[in-house]
Design goal:
431 residues; alpha/beta; 3-stranded antiparallel beta sheet; globular
Length: 431
């Protein structure tokens, strides 16, 4: 409305949710966040523009892309709209264009899943991606010819000097923002662990551990992890099939990878996989151990030796963790932070107390998002704990960490001839 007035443009009529031009309804405005039905069955428009697209829900995105339609000129039947590739040069066909403008959010956002992640490698290398369906452009402050005149470079430099690298990369370089307030693991810690074994010079060696997070048919995927010593070599998910099919999938992966130790989540439905697991691994040199995250922590009488947490005095593990899920997520966090310190500050730690994620893991970006979006739950009694899956979904709209859970479970290794190693080794020496 202000621009129409500023340029003194004739013929426009401004309404509450639309702008008309002469006898046509030229512009119409609708909110996707609260009223998805407002865009359903929309027709007669050629161009659509969506602002703040990173906040669009999957439901809104589906409703938008599936129901937008424009009638072709000269009465072409609607069915020809499905033949765009064959008809793209047809003189009687008008194309629809949809422009999404977004500040990159979490890699788990529906917008990122649909329009960024599948093309991210090409986008990072070239700054754009284009095919018959998409034109995607990555833009940063470096692409703004007026940036120096904006007075924002001081703010950018301050962020670079004082904020976390993950925050800076998100705000100024359009990288994903997978951090949450009071998160268990910071994104820059995780990033330091990618191929850390190659950068620090230790190899995948020792026990091969596989862990499986089962699920039945529904919205949650099944997860699988295999780590060889301190190197996580494989992280996968399976979205289709029931719990039995998922169990077969995970067991086949474990057998083919010649693992030494196998565990799976037995809180809830996973307990039903016990017979299948025992039978499938019978006669193979593989130790089997159920993982019940709800059970009391291991080594409860040992002293907790924190890497990060400001725990005053000597406290026993049983007084710090209520269950195994919390215990081993914090063990994973300590390994990740230890590795980050080794990479960033050249501190020496025992490689057996570190963790490295192979860059060959196809789901590494999703794993990063899940691990960096685990909020720590405040507790006035001094316990270190995370929110439950149900609390994460209801309170923060964070989906079940189906990839992160088996990585966490793989931290617990029980040798028949050796007790669990103590948690949280301090550094042996500092260079």
């Amino acid at each position: 409305k202000e621009e129409i007035s500023r340029f003194q443009l004739p013929g426009f009529t401004v309404q509450q949710q639309s702008i008309g031009y002469k006898d046509d309804q030229a512009f119409e405005f609708a909110g996707l966040a609260r009223n998805i039905d407002s865009v359903k069955s929309t027709h007669g428009f050629k161009r659509f523009s969506v602002e703040e697209a990173q906040f669009i829900s999957e439901q809104s995105l589906d409703a938008l892309t599936a129901t937008l339609r424009h009638k072709p000129k000269n009465g072409l039947p609607d069915k020809f709209m499905t033949l765009l590739e064959d008809l793209e040069d047809h003189p009687d066909l008008e194309h629809i264009s949809v422009v999404f403008v977004a500040n990159t959010g979490s890699s788990e956002d529906p917008f990122s899943q649909r329009f960024i992640l599948p093309f991210k490698v090409h986008l990072d290398e070239h700054g754009f991606y284009e095919d018959d369906l998409h034109t995607i452009v990555k833009m940063n402050y470096t692409d703004n010819p007026w940036f120096d005149e904006s007075g924002l470079d001081g703010e950018r430099q301050w962020d670079y000097d004082n904020r976390s690298r993950a925050f800076y990369d998100h705000k100024w370089l359009a990288e994903f923002n997978d951090d949450v307030d009071d998160g268990l693991i910071m994104a820059e810690w995780f990033d330091a662990c990618v191929d850390a074994h190659l950068r620090l010079g230790f190899k995948p060696e020792g026990v091969k551990i596989a862990a499986h997070d089962p699920s039945d048919t529904g919205r949650d995927a099944k997860g699988y992890t295999m780590r060889h010593g301190s190197v996580v070599l494989d992280v996968q998910e399976k979205t289709a099939g029931d719990i039995a099919e998922g169990g077969d999938w995970a067991l086949n992966l474990a057998i083919n990878q010649v693992i030494d130790y196998y565990t799976w989540d037995c809180d809830g439905m996973g307990v039903g996989l016990n017979e299948k697991t025992v039978n499938s691994l019978a006669g193979k040199p593989i130790d089997i151990e159920m993982f019940k995250g709800s059970e009391s922590p291991d080594n409860p009488e040992e002293i907790y030796k924190p890497v990060l947490d400001n725990v005053t005095g000597q406290r026993l593990i049983k007084d710090v963790f209520r269950n195994k899920r919390n215990q081993y997520y914090f063990e994973l966090r300590d390994r990740i932070y230890t590795t980050y310190r080794a990479i960033m500050y050249n501190e020496y730690y025992d490689p057996n107390r570190m963790i490295s994620f192979s860059s060959n893991i196809k789901a590494i970006q999703k794993l990063r998002s899940e691990l960096c979006r685990l909020p720590i739950k405040p507790n006035s009694n001094g316990y270190l704990q995370l929110y439950t899956k149900e609390e994460m979904l209801n309170k923060f709209k964070i989906k079940s960490p189906n990839l992160a859970d088996p990585v966490m479970m793989s931290m617990r290794y029980i040798d028949n001839n050796q007790a669990l190693p103590p948690l949280n080794y301090p550094p042996q020496s500092i260079i």
